[in-house]
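task queued by scheduler; priority normal; single chain, no ligands, no partner chains; default sampling; output format set to structure tokens
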Amino acid sequence: MINNKMQDVLNEQINAELYSGYLYLSMSAYYQSINLSGFANWMYVQMLEEQAHAQILYNHIVDRGGRVILKAIEAPQIEWENALAPFEAALKHEQKITSLIHNLVTIAADEKDYASNAMLQWFVTEQVEEEKNVSDIIDKMNLVNSAPGGIFMIDRELAARVYTPPSILAGQQGGDPAV
């Protein structure tokens, strides 16, 4: 059974993951509005990943006999000054999420909640990948900044991204059976 402190902080993280999805959906809408459908696709897939992250946490709480409490999701930013700005904001956001995950790991260790700690190790690894993926795109955008057509080449590359549900969801029994 999950203790109340761990349940509460995991519920907060569910909110943070759902906000992340909302933010990425807003970024996708921004890119659609400036006719960069590949960028929009990348952000849409990122939104799906964030929803899956929330589902992993949800399932963990349910599987441990806890109660999921959903709270209001803050409205995300809706405008950016250029095509690079959303990715810069995404990197800053992912760094914040990384610090939240690290804090959860510390709490799980303090609470001697080995099951939560084991589940959270997946998130620790996932956050390394999240930050790297965003950083790589920022680096590419900075490289092509002065090259005509470079942004459109990146847009074509980002259009190829597809969503693959995380394998950690396949092994979980709780929550929404549709996921």
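post-processing summary
- Residues 4-33 form the longest helix (30 residues).
- The two ends are 23 Å apart (CA to CA).
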